Each structure stands twice: as structure tokens, then as C-alpha cells.
């Protein structure tokens, strides 16, 4: 079965609002074996919303609608669903009483326009909303086919889905079992990764393969669905090991853990500690490391040496070394890592120095150039890499590359 998600509200079309509901609902539906084939955001426009609903009903099995269930004139979801399905709406006194009781519990008076929320589409079941005033609605159309009306606020929508919608969908759906694998990969671009693994996964159309990318980090999701768990496991087992072998040491996680969490596990298991010295990343590397709960067990601290003066004063990088090679160079990256390891007293130390842009850079090392230093029990090394000269991208990939180099050294 497939599903569509429609987010309603003109505010969702502004640059300051993000439709996070659809992301959460997609995850919940996927767990039931339902594929989301379309997501749409529609403003508070009667004609557009009705047309969108009519198209969705004609092509999808399950339509989940979030938003537009409030008491104001621009809350059109109930009316438009009724029009698109050719049904009427009926006023339900018991719903109005529940809404009034909700206001009373908050010691507030109910406005007259809240009566709009007490109208139920003919044939629909009302869904209790203990976290808000807008009841949800569940309308079965047969087939099986269903339309779900959910409130927009996540604190109302999520409990309503868990308590009312998921049990109903499970009853509608045929027995289905899912087997999945999730590989997280560093040090490889999306296009290169797909070129590597596509010859394998395209031979297994029954296994859904999804490649998701962000700067310096790519995820490969494999999901098989079948009538029994054994059958789903068997379908996945036919393709997952082959892809895993192709990806090799680039895979840093198979359980969804972040790169910084994976590195943290390795440090902790070895009784090792880590320190950092950052320049162009401006604290991003340390922030990522300390975002992991329990990181105090292995992360001792770091230096944010954005200026050359701080590199010399705090890390002991010789001023003449910077003058000779510039602050963005292999010798300086190595000296930063060594200085951090010595002063912090840690097993490993990472350093990052580069030109994040938009200004800076030299002919030899233009904007986008980064040097990473790694000091450890067996000595100090430094590496140079270059990426697209976008400030956020440079900083993100620099911190990812540093963590991944440490991961490989630990393994």
C-alpha cells in the first residue's frame, strides 16, 4: 500500500516554517510497510485544497492530512475533505461539549467559532485530542482506502497518530514484515557511492534502496518487505552483504550512530582520550564530539585558536613556522596537533586549519583548502584536502574528515 501526506496552512509556505510532521509520519508509515509516494504543502485556499485532495484520493490508498482543523475561517480541511469525497458534515453536540470541557479545564472561556470544530464528516470516526481542542477524524472509503485528518501541532498530532491511527492502519493492512539495514559512510560522495553499489542493488528490485547525502556523510538504507520475517530477512541477506563488502572501511556505522558517536565508542573501548585544536572549524569539531552523551569519558578538551597569535600562545606553534609556511599548511597543522596533545595530556589530538572563505586563501592553497593534523602514540601526521569553497561546507567536511581519519587510525 502507498500513502500521501498533505500539510495544510499558508504559514507552511513561508521561509520560516518547516514541515516536520511529514518526516515523522513517513517514518511511522515505513515501519508499517507503507511507502509514502507524495508529500504536498497546500495553503489555505479552498479550490486548491479540494483539487489536491481529489487527486490524492484517486491515486493513493492512505491520505494523511495535518493542519487546518482549527476554529477560524481559514481552517478548511473538514469542508474540503467533505467536498472531495462527496459527503456532508454533521454537527455533533458531544464533540462541542468535549471542546468546552477542554477550555474549562484550562480555566478559559470558549469562543463561539470553536463550534466549527464540532462538525464531523459523514461516515468518519472522531478522534479524541486530549492535548488540544481540534478532534481528529478517520474516514474509511473502502478498498481499503482511508483519509486521516490530524491536527497540525506535533504535540497533538503524534499522540493522536500513536493512539488512534496506527492501530487502525495495522488492522487494515495485510500482514507484513520488514527487514532493514542502515549503513553510514564517510569520505565518499553520493554520486561515487551510487555508481559503486548500483550494479548490485538494481538486480534486487524487491529490496528498496535509498541513498541520502549531506556534506561529507552518506547514508544507505536497504529495506525488504515480505509476508513473513524469514522471507524479508532472506531478501535482504541476498543484497546487503554484497553492498557492505563494496563499501569496505568507509562504513562507520550500521546502527544509525553518528560518526562522532562511533569514534567515541572506539576511544572508550580502548581507554583512550582525545583533545582538539581548531582554527577554521571554529569549535564545530569539539561541539560534535561533546554532543554525544557520555563523551566526558574520553574527551578532555580543546583549543580554539582562530588567530595566529593564539596558535603560538596557547599551542606553542613557533611564530617563525607560521611566517615561513603560513597558518594553513602541513607543518602548522602538525604543530597544532602536537601542541594540543602535549598540553591536554591526551592519547590522541586532532587539529584543523584552513581557509573556509569567502576571503583568504593563496595561489597554492585557495579557499576550500584544509589541513588536518593527527597526533597519537605513534607520531604525528597531517593531510591536505580541498572542497567546494562554501564556508559551511568547508567547516562541516573538515570536522567529518578529521573524525573519520581518527576512526580509521583507531581501527
Descriptive account of the structure:
The chain is 40% helix and 25% strand. The protein has helices at residues 21-31, 46-59, 77-85, 93-105, 154-172, 190-201, 229-237, 240-247, 259-270, 284-290, 308-315, 319-325, 330-344, 391-410, and strands at 2-8, 35-42, 62-66, 89-91, 119-121, 125-127, 136-140, 146-150, 177-186, 207-214, 217-226, 251-253, 274-278, 299-304, 348-354, 369-376, 379-386. It starts with a strand and ends with a helix. It folds into 3 domains: 2-172, MoaB/Mog-like domain (Molybdenum Cofactor Biosythetic Enzyme, Chain A); 177-253, Alpha-Beta Plaits (2-Layer Sandwich); 259-410, Alpha-Beta Complex (Maf protein). The strands form 4 sheets. The chain has a 6-stranded mixed sheet with strand order 2-1-3-8-7-6, with helices on both faces. With 411 residues, the chain is an alpha/beta fold. The longest helix is centred in the C-terminal third of the chain and has 20 residues, at 391-410.
